[in-house]
Amino acid sequence: MIPPAVPHHETPLPVAGRWPLFGAFALVFLIFAQVSSVLVSPPDRDMGHLQKIMYVHVPAAWTTFLAFFVVLVFSLLVLWKGRETHDLIAASAAEVGAMFNALTLALGMIWGRPTWGVWWTWDARLTSTLVLFLIFVGYLSLRAFIEEPERRARWSAAVGVLGAINVPIVYMSVKWWRTLHQLQSSPSTVDPAYVYGLRVNAFAFLFVLIYLVRRRYEAARLARAAEQLNDVAALGGR
Amino acid sequence: MASSINFVIAAYALTWVCLVAYATYVHRTLRRARDEYQRASRQPAGEAR
Amino acid sequence: MAWRDDWRRVRAIAWKDLTTERRSKAGFNSVVALGVTILVLFGFALGPDAAALRHAAAGALWLAVLFAGVLAFNRSYQVELDTGALDPLLLYPGARWTIFTGKLLANLVLVGLLLAIVVVVGLVLFQVSVPAAWPSLLGVLALGAIGLVALGTFYGAMASRTRAREVLLPLLLFPMLVPVMLAAMQASRALLVGDVMQEAGAWTRLLLAYDLIFLSATHLAFAQIIEG
Questions:
Q1: Could you give the C-alpha distances from C167 to A206, C156, C177, in angstroms and in order?
Q2: Element (H or E) spanning C202, and its range?
Q3: Are C173 and C153 in contact (CB under 8 A)?
Q4: Which of A53, A83, B8, C167 could serve as a FRET partner for B35 with CA atoms 20 to 30 Å apart?
Q5: C and A in touch (3+ CB pairs within 8 angstroms)
Q6: Does residue B49 form part of some domain?
Q7: Which domain holds residue A161?
Q8: pLDDT at position A10, please?
Q9: Does A6 touch chain B (CB under 8 A)?
Q10: d(Cα A206, Cα A26) in Å, to the nearest integer?
């Protein structure tokens, strides 16, 4: 699609191309992953059927961290090279990451309730994930309140990088907080019988992440290009 | 542990609701952006350098 | 020499911020009053049982400083925003970090004062006696204040220039301060009510590491966010 009279873009606009097909594949693969892992795995000795929640909770967590890692990398790129496309990738990854983050927390609570009897226990991992979610929300809120694209890109990038640096520190401090008061952390045993389920679901979530970030980025680029065209038109085409 | 199956079902249901809802949002945003872009590029923008 | 010029700028900016604050009569006093008020409210929330109050004193104290402190961070950019003085400041040749360090030092003095007053009032209200290890406590207070002020000054530079500064600054800042708050509160509590498990040392080390990491990171990133 070559539009007429368009301002110079650093990179050509992303097109839908084969991505809808990839989306369909990701969907099918996710269904396959979930069905096969649920059918294949036996109930856990201690957790019983609850163990199956791990097949969604853990991949959701991994996906969250991966998304945030993408935010970190592209934020650094923005600070280094200053290209708007990198900013839009970071922002797209942040939004998708926030969604997976919320899901991770909800699933963690759904698993925790029958296991520990309460909806929340200030467990180190879950608490750190909650703080990460707040950092995501802060990042997205900041963007919502900045109009100028260049400032928005640089400020979000700074916030993204600082946030990413903080995440391991948060995790360490919360873990210390728990262990110093002699509270057990949640069990992290992974029976080899469950490796298949975790692995296949991890890939399924990864494909979904890639697809969603890509489509979100596509939308962001188009919206931005439309904005630029409107600006040009408002200035009388100069 | 019999009732724990409800939590498992809730977990999977929530996962799908979340993913489908967000995917719908992304596609809707994409469609709107595409329309916005097509509308904007049809404007008489004059000569571009 | 460039170094000396830079540090002269830092001192000039710090001095300007502090004298501006002193001349605005209501400013700092209101912040302190707010800190004390918050402390009192915590007393209502957690008391009146003396044991509960003593145990919660350190936490309440730091939260009072945090909530009152965010006002100081937004205010530190107030003058430049009202008078448009930020742009001329940026036109001066010289490293951007000097602006940050200058404001950071000014905020450190103000928050330090706030902290001192809140601690004294807190010890009284929450019935905590001055611990034998008070020099260590001073160290913890100092390290905590540094972490708080470094990030507060940094995020304040952004939040104060948006339309939603009152909510945006806490929203951005508080999650980032989780390690500082946690470490400062736990170390302070250990020192105030008796360090049974010797945890104050570990938390202090965490505070030190955090301060070093984020003092560097904010200084490096400041140039990116102060422009335009």
A1: 34, 11, 16
A2: helix C199-226
A3: no
A4: A83
A5: yes
A6: no
A7: 52-183
A8: 61
A9: yes
A10: 9
pTM of the predicted protein model: 0.91
How many domains, in total, are found in chain B? 1
**Residue A147, domain CATH:** 1.20.120
- Is A136 domain-assigned? yes
Question: CB contact, 8 Å: B17 with chain A?
Answer: no
ipTM: 0.91
Q: Are A233 and B42 in contact (CB under 8 A)?
A: no
Is pLDDT at C216 greater than 80 in this prediction? yes
Q: What part of A 21-40 touches B (C-beta under 8 Å)?
A: 23, 30, 34
Domain presence at residue A60:
yes
Report the amino acid identity of residue A65: F
Non-local (6+) Cβ contacts of A96 within 8 A are A67, A209, A212, A213, A216, B22
Q: Give the torsion sign (CA, C4, C8, C14, C18).
A: positive
Residue A120 maps to a domain = yes
One-letter amino acid for residue A199 of the chain: R
The number of beta carbons lying within 10 Å of the beta carbon of residue A179 is 12
